[in-house]
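Researcher: We plan to redesign the surface later, but first we want a full-length starting point. Tokens attached.
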């Protein structure tokens, strides 16, 4: 496989390279693409120095896959050009997620929808991925009516500028601000831009993307997204109302038997998911599983995942792996 990583010098781009190496992706050729100011610079991958290419050079090379993590405007401009050259684009931005002609994929949930005709594939929002990983098996068994989710999102979701801001504040140093307010020792209920309806774009991503991935517009989702001063991953407090009655023991077993999910739910030994320990891992962790005592058929839980891994890089690479397996299994 010949792969281009677009946005290779960013936080997610670096993580994509790490995941490709860790998962022993069958690489024959690697093209690293970044902004014009980075063209010609060297980046190490697996002991080899690779020169940053321009977008035009990468398109002409016609790689099998291009994994994008370079922002929505870049994806809108260049993803179709790669696709026209025969390259399969896996895009990490929000540019194509709600396009009715593009598939929004979490391989464990709806990878079966992919075909060789799909040339631009959308990678969901990081917060959405970890949420739907838990919701999907529960929806299949109990039928979800409504989801109320509050997120506690790592500064790494904003990027290196936000991480630098937090580190500068902790060191008592002045520096460039990624947020309107200090983030260290603070929580900012403002992820992405505000929309006319009073919600942020991040909150509406959770609403719309969840429905699309589950393939069910009848699932009602409302969200509040909060930025917190951690770097290990995103956390979510989730309240789920079902159509059917459930048993919490059955819920734990169902989730524990679901690939990609790890249940950490032993209150007696203080075992529950935390971003500190999710960092660098590909699993989605769920705990604090308990019945909502205020209304029937409703569950509370706590979901944590590394937003740079399963929330971005790992999911994108898994999409490529899924397609490689599907293409290789098809008759010539």
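Model: Full-length starting sequence:
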């Amino acid at each position: 496989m010949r792969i281009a990583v677009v946005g290779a010098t960013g936080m997610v781009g670096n993580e994509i390279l790490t995941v490709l190496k860790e998962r022993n992706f069958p690489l024959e050729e690697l093209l690293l693409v970044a902004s014009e100011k980075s063209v010609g610079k060297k980046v190490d991958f697996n002991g080899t120095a690779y020169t940053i290419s321009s977008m035009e050079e990468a398109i002409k090379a016609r790689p099998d896959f291009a994994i994008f993590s370079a922002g929505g405007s870049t994806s809108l401009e260049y993803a179709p050009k790669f696709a026209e050259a025969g390259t399969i684009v896996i895009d990490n931005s929000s540019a194509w997620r709600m396009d009715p002609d593009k598939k929004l994929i979490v391989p464990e949930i709806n990878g079966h929808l992919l075909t060789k005709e799909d040339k631009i594939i959308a990678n969901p929002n990081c917060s959405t991925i970890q949420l739907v990983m838990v919701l999907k098996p529960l929806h299949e068994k109990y039928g979800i009516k409504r989801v109320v989710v509050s997120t506690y999102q790592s500064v790494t979701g904003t990027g290196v500028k936000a991480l630098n801001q937090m580190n500068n504040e902790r060191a008592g140093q002045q520096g460039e601000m990624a947020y309107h307010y200090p983030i260290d020792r603070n929580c900012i209920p403002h992820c992405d831009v505000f929309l006319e309806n009073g919600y942020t774009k991040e909150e509406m991503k959770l609403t719309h993307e969840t429905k699309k991935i589950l393939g069910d517009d009848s699932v009602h989702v409302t969200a509040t997204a909060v930025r917190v001063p951690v770097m290990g991953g995103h956390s979510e407090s989730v309240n789920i109302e079902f159509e059917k009655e459930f048993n919490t023991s059955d819920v734990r077993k169902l989730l524990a038997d679901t690939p990609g999910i790890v249940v950490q739910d032993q209150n007696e030994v203080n075992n529950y998911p935390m971003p500190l320990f999710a960092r660098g891992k590909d699993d989605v962790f769920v705990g604090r599983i308990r019945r909502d005592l205020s209304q029937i058929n409703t569950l509370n839980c706590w979901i944590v995942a590394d937003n740079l891994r399963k929330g971005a890089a790992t999911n994108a690479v898994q999409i490529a792996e899924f397609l490689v397996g599907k293409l290789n299994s098809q008759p010539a």
